[in-house]
Amino acid sequence: MNLGRGPLSRRRFLAAAGLASALALTGCGGGEAKGADEKSVALVTPQKAGDGGPTDNLVSGLATLKAAGYSTRHVAAPDPSSHESTLRNLAQSGTPVIVVSFSDFTQVLKTVAPDFPKTKFVHIYSDPYKPEMPNVQTVSFDTQGPSYLAGVLAATVSKTGVIGFIGGTAIPSLYADYHAFEAGAKATRADIVLKSAFVGSFGDPVKGQQIAQTMFNNKVDVVLAYAGGSSVGVVKAADQAKTHVIYDNVESDQTAGSVIAIASQHYGGTMAKRVRGIDDGSWKPGGTVAGLADDGTFLDRAKKFRAEAGAPDLDSAFKKVDETKQKIVDGSIDVPFDTDPV
Description:
By secondary structure, this protein is of the alpha/beta class. It has 2 domains: 8-141 and 267-290, Response regulator (Rossmann fold, 3-Layer(aba) Sandwich); 144-264 and 307-329, Rossmann fold. Helix content is 35%, strand content 19%. The chain is built from 10 helices and 12 strands. The strands form 2 sheets. The chain has a 6-stranded parallel sheet with strand order 2-1-3-4-5-11, with helices on both faces. A 6-stranded mixed sheet has the order 7-6-8-9-10-12, sandwiched between helices. The chain is elongated. It is found in: Cell membrane. Residues 80-276 form the ABC transporter substrate-binding protein PnrA-like domain.
């Protein structure tokens, strides 16, 4: 799901006791220590591993780097007051590459990075910094690509000709996702009807379920759920209504009855590519975008979906999705970016 929809920025966690002391690394003064492993990377996240979502996905990227010969470390820093000391301690210890995630670290990184010009910082899920910083690379995700593909899929498999979009909160990035979803649907089926709603929260599955039930009671038979934790309720409603969902979270046995596809971001894989770019010389400071072309974002067929009698023909539908994806990547299709309110 689109983290302008940022799942981690929507949550706040209790401070982890003793974090600062656990990070008490060598070097107390300014500047970077010497002699550290040149193929070393530290990932700092505002949430502990085990979320079954973005943090775990990022940690899987560390495993990819470790297999490639990197020394890796994950530091969970749920207490915002510890963010600056965490980054400073890592940089002072000589960690050559430090990765941070989501908007929680923006202001702190702008403060810390100039003091450690030899350290490379990669900020996952961040808008470009203005002005650009010579040792900081930001990575944003083009979620309009998979949203457009979701529109193609929904319009192709819908039997009623009515599809829906349920977002977490009414914010510009989700407006852009809706308009891309609409464009993909209407390019596929001119007479398609779309309905949209916002839960008002990324963590209210009860309300998500209620909104979805209303849609399903009004002929909607496929929904794109971009509502984070609230999407769980959308899936429950679809299970009851025997309808289908394009989901923004991780598949599980509980999603097997109605979730036909996953639309999301490959956080860990994108992180690993950016870090390895430092060694192969392709790394550049400033803003970068991950999207369909580099597998930073995706719309994938759900692996756990249990096709029962009356289930949509996903083989044919995904053939059309794959053809459309190629046209987006080669520029034949221009996906709109429209943040006008829905």
